[in-house]
Amino acid sequence: MTILILGAGQLARMMSLAGAPLNLNVVAYDVGSQQIMHPLTGEVYKTTLEQAIESADAITAEFEHIPDDVLTLCCNSNKFYPGKAAIKTGGDRSLEKALLDKTQVACAPYQLITEKAHLELAVKNLGKPLVIKTCQAGYDGKGQWRLKSDDQIAQIWSEMAEFIASGAEDAPHSIIAEKMIPFDREVSIIGARDKQGNVAIYPITENEHTNGVLTLSIAGKNNQQIEQQANDAFTKIANELNYVGVLAIEFFDVNGTLLVNEIAPRVHNSGHWTQQGCHCSQFENHMRAVAGLPLGNTQLKHITAMINVLGQPSIPNGVLKTSDVTSHWYGKTAKPGRKMGHVNVSAESINDLADKLGELTDYLPEQDYPGILKAATNLMLCE
Ligand code: ATP
Ligand code: MG
């Protein structure tokens, strides 16, 4: 069976690695160069997108910012999962908020902005500070402003106006202002839904972001208090979208109440730990779902932490001295802050994970891998 993935980055690469043992052959469409290629070797094929669509058994995507004509072409084949509506919703915060309102899943209070009066309304109704985000085209904290005082309004508005004006008639740009949530922590839920509507959900992941980018995830802590809320939100949203594949939802945990931050209609960085932490990884489950195969086991096998490697030329070999550490390298050219790879660390207990994270700080310095020591200390305290 051949699966065509829109996007040829690390997520396509890891789906390809997960699909191979299932006899699923993956080809990727690089949206930038408009070429069909092998997601692992980068070998470029002489195939056109139309030919690749024709010869694929199923089509999926590794990101949500895909040109509309490409999405339409894929949808018309009736082989595209999770479908155009889900991808569009994940790529537009205004559609995402509408979906949350419709399914009655709680999120941060917000105000849509297309003109200056809406920004003033947001300041009046939501208060300060505000987190302001472009509805389209944002990722990894890009396309965001923090409004803390009234004297920032003019400057921020001029930048917002530029973004709004750069939209096209058939693809308008808008902005959303959200109340800044004083969360205790950020968590996410990853799960899969198959073509028959069966759902399999992974345990909650706790996520640490630095400058808007995920740096560390931990799965396997006791999250009993919020597990049901997260699973309910997942099921409501996945069912509403008639979703097929892996879906990720990021939340703010405010004193035991979850507010949705974002929905990602794809495998997600905060689910990379499942490669070692579960019997069936998020990548394998996404491949299974879109290929029409039964979903795999999402139960926790090992408490696992994932550390992102950002902007580094390689993963220090020393980390492999710590037992139960696996290295995942994406084979990309290094640029400051770019996601280059990740390291998964599995453990028998929370204390064991704290010890292993402590050991890893010998090889992973704080300035390049922030928050590992703090996470190790917190884990010891929570036992
Ligand atoms: P991603 O790479 O996850 O798609 P993104 O660029 O789409 O990131 P968000 O997830 O919306 O952006 O925001 C990035 C981070 O900024 C969040 O993980 C959170 O730490 C912080 N943040 C976003 N919105 C809020 C809010 N309303 N209140 C407090 N913090 C926020
Ligand atoms: Mg996010």
Automatic annotation (TrEMBL):
Pathway linked to the protein: Purine metabolism; IMP biosynthesis via de novo pathway; 5-amino-1-(5-phospho-D-ribosyl)imidazole-4-carboxylate from 5-amino-1-(5-phospho-D-ribosyl)imidazole (N5-CAIR route): step 1/2
EC class of the enzyme, as a word: ligase
BP-aspect Gene Ontology terms: 'de novo' IMP biosynthetic process
PROSITE patterns: ATP_GRASP
Homology family: Belongs to the PurK/PurT family.
Residues covered by the ATP-grasp domain: 97-291
Family matches, as PANTHER family: PHOSPHORIBOSYLAMINOIMIDAZOLE CARBOXYLASE (PTHR11609:SF5), PURINE BIOSYNTHESIS PROTEIN 6/7, PUR6/7 (PTHR11609)
Protein name, entry field: N5-carboxyaminoimidazole ribonucleotide synthase
A GO cellular-component term linked to this record: cytosol
Binding site for ATP: 93, 133, 138-144, 178-181, 186, 209, 261-262
Function: Catalyzes the ATP-dependent conversion of 5-aminoimidazole ribonucleotide (AIR) and HCO(3)- to N5-carboxyaminoimidazole ribonucleotide (N5-CAIR). Catalyzes the ATP-dependent conversion of 5-aminoimidazole ribonucleotide (AIR) and HCO(3)(-) to N5-carboxyaminoimidazole ribonucleotide (N5-CAIR).
Record text on subunit structure and interactions: Homodimer.
GO molecular function, one term: phosphoribosylaminoimidazole carboxylase activity
InterPro entries given in the database record: ATP-grasp, ATP-grasp_carboxylate-amine, ATP_grasp_subdomain_1, PreATP-grasp_dom_sf, PurK, PurK_C, PurT/PurK_preATP-grasp, Rudment_hybrid_motif
Keywords: ATP-binding, Ligase, Nucleotide-binding, Purine biosynthesis
The keyword Hydrolase is assigned to this record: no
NCBIfam families in alphabetical order: PRK06019.1-5, purK
HAMAP family (alphabetical): PurK
EC number from the UniProt entry: 6.3.4.18
Origin superkingdom: Bacteria
Catalytic activity: 5-amino-1-(5-phospho-beta-D-ribosyl)imidazole + hydrogencarbonate + ATP = 5-carboxyamino-1-(5-phospho-D-ribosyl)imidazole + ADP + phosphate + 2 H(+)
